[in-house]
Write a structure and sequence with these properties.
Elements (H helix, E strand, L loop, with lengths): L1 E7 L4 H9 L6 E8 L5 H8 L4 E3 L2 H4 L2 H10 L4 E4 L8 H6 L4 E5 L13 H10 L4 E8 L9 E8 L6 H27 L2
Helix pairs in contact: 1-2, 1-7, 6-7
């Protein structure tokens, strides 16, 4: 059984979806949710579903003497970034090399990098006049949004779609595909 930590910064719809998906799984189980912000929706969702939550601010994330003992305490084997807005420090990427993935709300390599998260991405997609958008699951690397692509899923856009419409279409893909990609990846990596 693979012990998974989910890192979040916001409302937690992906976090909740992942926890529910892996409830009763024989592949992996979410054992810890880490949020860099207190009081966000993800915390309530995780606690309601019985997954321990810890708030770790930016300074703690960047301190190996804070974050690594916490991950060891919960025997975390694998990390999923699900709407986590802080840049992961190199020491943590090294410690979880090819054991940490991120979800990006666009078809990388387009619309990635520092500052490209959430609504910023959907606004950029609209401004560029894209006819499709999608989601990318990728390995976390020192180059923000530059790690190897694991999976991508796309959806067509209409010319009159607003950034909110684009976000809604992309979010449907996240809900449908993200937990399955995690399961397939873990099944193939650890079988």
């Amino acid at each position: 059984m693979i012990n998974m930590a989910i890192f979040v910064s916001g409302g937690g719809t992906n976090c909740e979806n992942i926890i529910k998906y892996f409830n009763g799984s024989d592949v992996a189980r979410p054992v810890l949710v880490i949020s860099n912000k207190p009081g966000v929706g993800a915390i309530e969702k995780a606690e309601r579903l019985g997954v321990p939550v810890r708030v770790v601010r930016k300074a703690g994330l960047n301190d190996p003497d804070v974050i690594l003992p916490l991950l060891r305490e919960f025997s975390v084997d694998f990390i999923v970034l699900a709407g986590f807005l802080l840049v992961i420090p190199d020491f943590l990427i090294h410690e979880y090399d090819h054991r940490m993935i991120n979800l990006h709300p666009a078809l990388l390599p387009k619309f990635g990098g520092i500052g490209m998260y959430g609504h910023h991405v959907h606004e950029a997609v609209k401004e560029a006049g894209e006819t499709v958008t999608g989601m990318t699951v990728h390995w976390v690397s020192p180059d923000v949004d530059g790690g190897g692509i694991i999976a991508q899923f796309s959806t067509p856009l209409d010319p009159d779609d607003t950034p909110d419409d684009i976000a809604a279409k992309e979010h449907v893909l996240e809900m449908e595909h993200f937990p399955k990609v995690i399961e397939e990846l873990l099944s193939s990596q650890y079988s």
